[in-house]
Design brief:
Elements lengths: L9 E3 L11 E5 L11 H15 L4 E6 L4 H13 L2 E7 L8 H8 L3 E5 L1 H4 L5 H11 L3 E2 L7 H12 L7 E6 L3 H10 L4 E6 L7 H13 L6 E4 L12 H14 L8 H14 L7 E5 L6
Parallel strand pairs: 2-10, 3-4, 3-6, 4-5, 7-8, 7-10, 8-9
Antiparallel strand pairs: 1-2
């Protein structure tokens, strides 16, 4: 089975809150790709799963937290692709399982817990060697799914946009989606990421390195905004929650507070501050996620 991706629509945002600023805002509904492998996760996993099969692996292993969208999506994709999956979960086991891990387990994913200190060392050869001794041969997909093959998949988002634009925006966790978008732009237009993490200055190097792994090219038409993390990963606030409710009411587009809500809040705020100019067109990539 190949992970074929159908065209995802653009939806024009018609919101009185930003109507007077003259900016054209569209949402690329990547969240509609698949009900359980939505948005950037499908794009990131597509070529990795094909490569795993090509190399003769019958199981994949990846990392994530207890509420990881990546774990959720990888488990589902493994079931769809008929390949076994192992999820290395940061932290201690606890019962009952939350919705994310319950779903992953229902898809057949084997859950393996790793204490936080060791989890920080998960990319060391010695730790990977221990996992191979325990589980046997596996194809390794990094935390968040971000590697050169993920960049290749995410670059295809740009080719699927049939609307002229000035900026393309996306939320940033590990940087793979933004790296793909930048590569897909081929030095044209501008890409702007919105960090979902506090103190995420390292993301600029991560994105640059992912692009170099993918096509050995340096691009200058992009940046990452660090101002809308709301205190850190998976942190929120009443202003963000209220914004998300109003946005969904006006546009019938659901958001979640970890990634897409923060990005859209940031876009609205930058529109009001004049960062985006009247007459410009913005494409906001809706990367899906669990609400």
């Amino acid at each position: 089975m190949k992970l074929a991706i159908s065209h995802t629509p653009l939806q024009k945002v018609e919101d009185p809150e930003i109507a007077d600023f003259g900016v054209n805002l569209y949402v690329k509904r990547e969240d509609l790709i698949h009900p359980t492998v939505s948005g950037n996760k499908w794009r990131k996993l597509k070529y990795n799963l094909e490569q795993a099969r090509k190399e003769g692996f019958d199981q994949i292993l990846t990392y994530g937290g207890a509420y990881s969208n990546h774990i959720y999506a990888t488990a589902s994709a493994g079931k769809l692709f008929d390949i076994k999956s192992i999820g290395v979960i940061r932290g201690e086991p606890h019962e009952p399982l939350n919705d994310t891990l319950s779903f992953a387990k229902s898809c057949g994913m084997r859950l393996h817990y790793m204490d936080r200190e060791k989890y920080r060392q998960k990319n060391l050869a010695s730790v990977i060697g221990e996992l191979k001794e325990r589980f046997g041969k596996f194809y390794l997909i990094p935390e968040g799914g971000s590697n050169a093959l993920a960049v290749k998949g995410c670059a295809e988002i740009v080719a699927d946009i049939d609307q002229d634009f000035d900026y393309i925006c996306c939320a940033c966790g590990t940087g793979g989606t933004l790296a793909g978008i930048i590569a897909g732009l081929h030095h044209q237009k501008k890409a702007l990421g919105f960090a979902a993490l506090k103190g995420a200055g390292f993301l600029k190097d991560e994105v640059s390195n992912l692009i170099l792994l993918y096509n050995q090219t340096i691009y200058k038409n992009w940046d990452i905004n660090m101002d809308y993390h709301f205190g850190g990963y998976a942190k929120s606030g009443s202003d963000l929650q209220e914004f998300m409710k109003k946005f969904e009411k006006h546009n019938k587009i659901p958001l979640e507070f970890i990634y897409t809500g923060k990005m859209m809040f940031g876009i609205y705020d930058l529109i009001k501050k004049g960062f985006f100019k009247s007459g410009e067109t913005i494409i906001a990539i809706h990367t899906g996620g669990i609400r």
